[in-house]
C-alpha cells in the first residue's frame, strides 16, 4: 500500500482509491477544470473504486451547494453549505463517536467546515455533532467527512476507508 | 488560553485549529488585494486566500510615511466579497490593531514588516488570540521565536514590493539549510545551537523530530512570475504569497491564474511553460541590492 499525489488524469488512472483532502474548494474546482479533471473524477467512483472527501473534498463531492460556486461534482446525494459553522474564528475541535470505528471517540478538527444540510435516502450518517448535524456520511463507495482526519495522526478513519477498497486491491 | 471557548463540546481558538487552517492553504497562492473587485479577481484566478490591505507593498515603498493597519470597513467589504479566507496586516507589536481585526472576524493576521513597526523590541503575544497569525522570518531562529509567541504559520520576509525574488530565496534557503543541520546534530548539541540562533530548545527539538518547521512555511517577498513561485516551491515552501506581483502587472487575472498553476504543478516544467506564455508585462522591479539600508523592510522585527 502506498500513497501518491494525484494532479493529472493519468495519475488518477493508476490509483485504487482516491482521497480529496481539505483545502479551498473554489481553488480546487478552478484547477480541476483547468486540467480536465472533472469528468474523470466523476467517472472514478463508477469504476467501483472508493472516493473519500474531507471538508473541501466533501463540498466538491456534493450534488447540491447552497452557494452558487463552485460547481460541485454531483456525486453524493447531499446538500452542503460552505463555511457552515462560520469563519475561522468559529473553527473548532470536538470528540466524535463514528459508526464503524471501534474504541475511543475520534478527536475531530473542523476548519471553516461545511455543513451537510440534507441527505438523500441512500446516504447513511456515520457520525453527527451533539445537535444532530451529520459530519461523516457514506453512500456506497463514497465517504465524506466535514472534519480533517489528515490533521490529527489518528489513522482509524483511513483504515475504515481502506476497507472500502475492492477485494484484491490491498495486498 | 482564556480567550479560547468551549461550547457544547466544541473547543474554538486552539492552536490545532489555528495551525490547521494554514495546513489547508498548503500548495496554494495568497494574493494581496486592495479592493473587493480585486479580491473577486484573485478568487476567480484560484487564490486560496487574499490579503486585504489599502496599498500593496510597492506603493507603500513609493509613498513613504507611516504604513498602518487598513481601514476595517475596507477589510470587511473584501470579507463580504469572497468566500475564501481573508487575511490582513498589523504593525509589528501592535496588539490593539490585532484585537480590532479579531473583532471584525478576520481569518488570519499577518504581523508584518511591510507596515511601519509599532514596537521595535516586542512582537505581539499571539497565544492570546483566537485568530491565527502568520509572521515573517529570515532564518530558523526568527521563525521559531515567532512560533514560540504563537504564530500558527510562517513565511519568509523576502523583500516586499521589489519584484526581486533574491531575498525570499536567501531566507528560504537559510531556513532549510539550518533545518538540515539540526537533523544531523546530536541531542547534546541542540542546547548550544538553540542559544546561538535564539530559539526555544523545545521548538528546536520539535523541528529536528519533524525535519521541518512545526508550522506551515510559505514564501513571500518579491515573487513576481510563475517561475519565481515554482522556484520557491522547489526550495521547500509550502505555498506562496504574491504581494505587488499580481495587481501591479499588466494582466492581473491571467498572471494570477498562471502563478496558481505554477505552484500546483511546480515540478512539471511543461505545465509552468504553458502557464507562463503571453502574460504581458510583469510588475516593474527594483533590484533588492539597490536599496539603501533604510529602505529594506526585512530588517524590521527580529
Protein described:
The complex is a heterodimer of chains A (171) and B (302). By secondary structure, chain A is α/β, with parallel strands linked by helices. Chain A has one domain (17-162): Rossmann fold (3-Layer(aba) Sandwich), CATH 3.40.50.880. Chain A contains five helices and ten strands. In chain A, the strands form three sheets. Chain A has a five-stranded mixed sheet. Chain A has a three-stranded mixed sheet with strand order 3-4-7. The radius of gyration of chain A is 15 Å and the shape is globular. The termini of chain A are close together. The relative contact order of chain A is 0.19. The model of chain A has no long low-confidence stretch (mean pLDDT 95). Chain B is an alpha/beta fold. Helix content of chain B is 43%, strand content 14%. Chain B has 13 helices and ten strands. Chain B has an eight-stranded parallel sheet, sandwiched between helices. In chain B, strand 7, helix 6 and strand 8 form a beta-alpha-beta unit. The longest helix of chain B has 19 residues, at 166-184. The mean pLDDT of chain B is 95. The interface between A and B is large, with 35 and 41 residues. Strand 5 of chain A pairs antiparallel with strand 2 of chain B, so a sheet runs across the interface.
Amino acid at each position: 500500500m502506498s500513497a501518491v499525489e494525484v494532479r493529472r488524469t493519468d495519475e488518477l488512472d493508476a490509483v485504487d482509491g482516491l482521497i480529496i483532502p481539505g483545502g479551498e474548494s473554489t481553488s480546487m474546482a478552478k484547477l480541476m477544470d483547468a486540467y480536465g479533471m472533472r469528468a474523470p473524477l466523476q467517472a472514478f467512483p463508477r469504476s467501483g473504486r472508493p472516493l473519500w472527501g474531507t471538508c473541501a473534498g466533501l463540498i466538491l463531492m456534493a450534488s447540491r451547494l447552497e452557494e452558487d460556486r463552485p460547481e460541485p461534482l454531483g456525486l453524493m446525494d447531499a446538500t452542503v453549505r460552505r463555511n457552515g459553522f462560520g469563519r475561522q474564528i468559529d473553527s473548532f475541535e470536538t470528540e466524535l463517536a463514528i459508526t464503524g470505528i471501534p474504541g475511543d471517540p475520534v478527536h475531530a478538527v473542523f476548519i471553516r467546515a461545511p455543513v451537510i444540510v440534507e441527505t438523500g435516502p441512500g446516504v447513511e450518517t456515520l457520525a453527527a455533532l451533539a445537535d444532530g448535524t451529520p459530519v461523516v456520511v457514506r453512500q456506497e463507495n463514497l465517504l465524506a467527512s466535514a472534519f480533517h482526519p489528515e490533521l490529527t495522526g489518528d489513522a482509524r478513519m483511513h483504515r475504515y476507508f481502506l476497507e472500502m477498497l475492492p477485494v484484491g486491491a490491498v495486498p | 488560553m482564556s480567550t479560547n471557548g468551549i461550547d457544547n463540546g466544541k473547543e474554538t481558538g486552539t492552536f490545532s485549529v489555528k495551525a490547521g487552517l494554514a495546513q489547508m492553504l498548503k500548495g496554494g497562492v495568497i494574493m494581496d488585494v486592495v479592493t473587493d473587485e480585486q479580491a473577486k479577481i484573485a478568487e476567480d484566478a484560484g487564490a486560496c486566500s487574499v490579503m486585504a490591505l489599502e496599498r500593496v507593498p510597492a506603493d507603500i515603498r513609493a509613498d513613504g510615511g507611516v504604513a498602518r493597519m487598513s481601514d476595517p470597513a475596507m477589510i470587511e467589504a473584501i470579507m463580504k466579497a469572497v468566500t475564501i479566507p481573508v487575511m490582513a496586516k498589523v504593525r509589528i507589536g501592535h496588539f490593539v490593531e490585532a484585537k480590532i481585526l479579531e473583532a471584525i472576524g478576520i481569518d488570519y493576521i499577518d504581523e508584518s514588516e511591510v507596515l511601519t513597526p509599532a514596537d521595535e523590541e516586542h512582537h505581539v503575544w499571539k497565544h492570546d488570540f483566537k485568530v491565527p497569525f502568520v509572521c515573517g522570518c529570515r532564518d530558523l531562529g526568527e521563525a521559531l521565536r515567532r512560533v514560540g509567541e504563537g504564530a500558527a504559520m510562517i513565511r519568509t520576509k523576502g523583500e516586499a514590493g521589489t519584484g526581486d525574488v533574491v531575498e525570499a530565496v536567501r531566507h528560504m534557503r537559510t531556513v532549510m539549510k539550518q533545518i538540515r543541520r539540526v537533523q544531523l546534530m546530536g541531542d547534546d548539541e541542540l542546547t548550544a545551537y538553540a542559544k546561538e540562533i535564539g530559539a526555544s530548545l523545545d521548538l528546536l527539538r520539535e523541528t529536528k523530530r519533524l525535519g521541518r518547521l512545526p508550522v506551515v512555511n510559505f514564501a513571500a517577498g518579491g515573487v513576481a512570475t510563475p517561475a519565481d513561485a515554482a522556484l520557491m516551491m522547489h526550495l521547500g515552501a509550502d505555498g506562496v504569497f504574491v504581494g505587488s506581483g499580481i495587481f501591479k502587472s499588466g494582466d492581473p487575472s491571467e498572471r494570477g491564474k498562471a502563478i496558481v498553476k505554477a505552484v500546483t504543478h511546480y515540478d512539471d516544467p511543461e505545465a509552468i511553460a504553458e502557464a507562463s506564455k503571453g502574460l504581458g508585462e510583469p510588475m516593474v522591479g527594483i533590484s533588492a541590492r539597490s536599496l539603501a539600508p533604510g529602505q529594506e523592510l526585512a530588517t524590521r522585527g527580529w
